[in-house]
Amino acid sequence: MTGLLYTVVTAAGPTSRVATALLPTAMDRGWDVHCLATRRAVEVYPEAIAAIEEVLGRPVRTDFHTTVGYSLPDPDAVIVAPATYNTINKWAAGIADTYVLTRLAEQTGRAIPIAVAPYVNTNFAANPVYRRSLDALQEVGIDVVNGPLEPHAPGGGSAPLDAFPWEALLDSVAANRAA
Ligand SMILES: Cc1cc2nc3c(=O)[nH]c(=O)nc-3n(C[C@H](O)[C@H](O)[C@H](O)COP(=O)(O)O)c2cc1C
To answer: Measured from the CB, is residue 91 less than 6 Å from ligand 1?
Structure first.
């Protein structure tokens, strides 16, 4: 067993691929996977969330133990993918006003491997706040796997879903866990 892995999904296009492109490989590599989703991800991609639950055989977490009756143990590694502009900026700023942001805030200083793959369009990427947030996350040891270098055109029509770096995310947390 490699350990306990949180995969955090947010309301961006590649969430529709998590069940097929990330989870089977993560499980094959020995991770015990729990998925945490933002409320907006559940609203925008309900079929994707259902598919994730089917693959994992456990609920996707969106809320605290006070609502669902049990707490998740702290993970050995975290993958945040896809990460929206919104989640990146709030996480980097230390905001903890939702379940997902609270769990990210709690894990960020624990010296565990954390890898994030943003998925933003060129308009989001051009906002200086976004660059500052990625820099802040990298400064505390978080691996930004595709960074701000590959934003897609606004509108979503030509969004590069096939290029999303699922394997690189898994390689990152494995390498940093071993290090
Ligand atoms: C269909 C749809 C697709 C979206 N795709 C993206 C995206 O690829 N990247 C992004 O940063 N925001 C995207 N957004 C906007 C975010 O969903 C929005 O900023 C939301 O507040 C993010 O919430 P979260 O970070 O809590 O998931 C999309 C919204 C919709 C409705």
So the answer is: no
Domains of the chain, earliest start first: 3-178 (3.40.50.1950)
For residue 2, the CA-to-ligand 1 centroid distance in Å is 31
Residue 87 alpha carbon, nearest atom of ligand 1: 25
Longest dimension (CA), the chain: 42
Choose which residue among 35, 61, 84, 130 to substitute to test ligand 1 binding: the one with the highest number of ligand atoms within 8 A of its C-beta.
84
Shortest-distance Cα residue to atom 11 of ligand 1: 84
R_g (Cα) of the chain, nearest Å = 15
* 13 close to ligand 1 (CB < 6 Angstrom): yes
Per-residue pLDDT of the chain (179 residues; tens, 9 = 90+): 589 999 999 999 999 999 999 999 999 999 999 999 999 999 999 999 999 999 999 999 999 988 888 899 999 999 999 999 999 999 999 999 999 999 999 999 999 999 999 999 999 999 999 999 999 999 999 999 985 457 888 876 556 788 899 999 999 999 998 76
Strand, helix or coil for residue 34: strand
CB 118 within 8 A of CB 89: no
